[in-house]
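Re: that backbone. Tokens:
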């Protein structure tokens, strides 16, 4: 009987120790979970973690280092990296479909100075200088790619610029997405000139482009408006889209200087009369269709990314014909940025990890695609805008706060 009593007491003692250990582990996990929630949800939704491709502990720590400064607290980085690797390990849920071809790509990367700024929308001037905005850091940035030298200018308080465009003098203009402004940096004085929207309902200038006459055209997504600014007079005109909730997003000019706009909230493209600002809406097929951005070829074919249905589309303004092609990675690929370059249309599949770049050859109407590499094995995107630079495509990767130049060869 005493032997049974000994075993019973040993069982009780062991159970107690395991309970204490389990409680400690649970407390540690809870603490790590709270740390992750505090750090990550400050800048983005925690659903980003669930939608990620997952990483090893080391790669999670690398990605964290692009976003926040954990200082000298190595235990903090260790704990968070361990927690993320355990709960969000490497997976293939968002894997892309790659189409092989003859063209080879070369990537050159630059890491911007301020962490967590969400660097985006870089544009290169004829003088070679690349400008970008750090939307969440409220920054306008300058990069000399020949030397790698960078300079960051704090934007006026509350600006949180969404994009930057260059006028014919290479002056960088920003669009104040949070305070309803458009402005520029005077390169001689390094002072900002700011224009406020004339309508309180015009809250969120988004993306802009200059025409040959120096007029600045821009979209206001959630305000559902198109804007026109004359820098000589400071006069701003606004026009509201005919369909409620169209959410005008990308904007480009055709060879006549006519602005064309993509709709992120409705299945439409919009043509703007540059004289009267009258808006003409073109309905696109598919109720789920929405178009982030567009590109225009030299012969004025309007190409767009059908972000809602995973397609590349073309609208012929002369005939009214609409043609669409399926993206290599399918309906859920969420194509986003788009640009015309070298007799091809280039766009990215932003929902895939690694993020994928696609080239659509205009002659053969065939596609080739590549998984976009990132520094140190961290494949977090995403590219929201791409523009042709002096040598190749200029892109960004928001999560890792990197700018890049893409060149190609056969």
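Recovered sequence:
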């Amino acid at each position: 009987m005493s032997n049974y009593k000994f075993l019973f007491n040993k069982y009780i003692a062991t159970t107690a120790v395991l309970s204490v250990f389990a409680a400690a582990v649970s407390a540690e996990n809870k603490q790590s979970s709270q740390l992750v929630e505090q750090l990550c949800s400050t800048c983005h939704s925690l659903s980003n973690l669930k939608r990620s491709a997952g990483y090893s502990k080391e790669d999670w720590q690398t990605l964290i280092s692009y976003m926040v400064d954990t200082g000298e607290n190595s235990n903090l980085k260790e704990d968070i990296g361990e927690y993320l690797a355990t709960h969000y390990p490497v997976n293939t849920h968002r894997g892309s479909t790659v189409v092989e071809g003859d063209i080879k790509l070369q990537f050159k990367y630059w890491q911007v100075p301020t962490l967590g700024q969400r660097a985006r929308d870089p544009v290169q001037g004829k003088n070679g200088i690349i400008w970008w905005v750090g939307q969440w850091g409220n920054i306008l940035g300058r990069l000399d790619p020949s030397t790698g030298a960078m300079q960051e200018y704090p934007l006026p308080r509350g600006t949180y610029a969404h994009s930057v465009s260059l006028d014919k003098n290479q002056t960088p203009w920003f669009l104040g997405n949070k305070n309803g402004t458009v402005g520029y940096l005077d390169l001689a004085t390094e002072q900002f000139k700011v224009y406020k929207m004339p309508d309180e309902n015009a809250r969120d200038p988004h993306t802009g482009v200059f025409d040959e006459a120096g007029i600045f055209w821009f979209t206001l997504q959630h305000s559902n408006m198109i804007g026109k600014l004359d820098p000589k007079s400071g006069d701003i005109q606004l026009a509201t889209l005919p369909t409620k909730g169209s959410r005008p997003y990308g904007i480009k000019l055709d060879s006549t200087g006519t602005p064309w706009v993509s709709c992120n909230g409705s299945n439409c493209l919009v043509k703007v009369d540059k004289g009267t600002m009258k808006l003409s809406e073109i309905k696109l097929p598919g109720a789920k269709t929405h178009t982030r951005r567009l590109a225009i070829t030299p012969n004025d074919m309007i190409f767009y990314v059908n972000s809602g249905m995973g397609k590349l589309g073309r609208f012929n303004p002369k005939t009214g014909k609409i043609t669409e092609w399926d993206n290599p990675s399918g309906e859920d690929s969420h194509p986003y940025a788009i640009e015309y370059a070298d007799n091809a249309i280039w766009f990215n599949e932003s929902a895939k990890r690694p993020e994928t770049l696609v080239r659509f050859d205009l002659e053969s109407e065939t596609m080739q695609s590549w998984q976009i590499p990132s520094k140190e094995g961290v494949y977090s995107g995403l590219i929201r805008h791409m523009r042709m630079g002096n040598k190749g495509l200029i892109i960004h990767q928001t999560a890792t706060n990197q700018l890049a130049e893409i060149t190609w060869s056969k």
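The chain has two domains: 2-87, 104-409. Helices lie at 2-40, 47-50, 57-67, 74-87.
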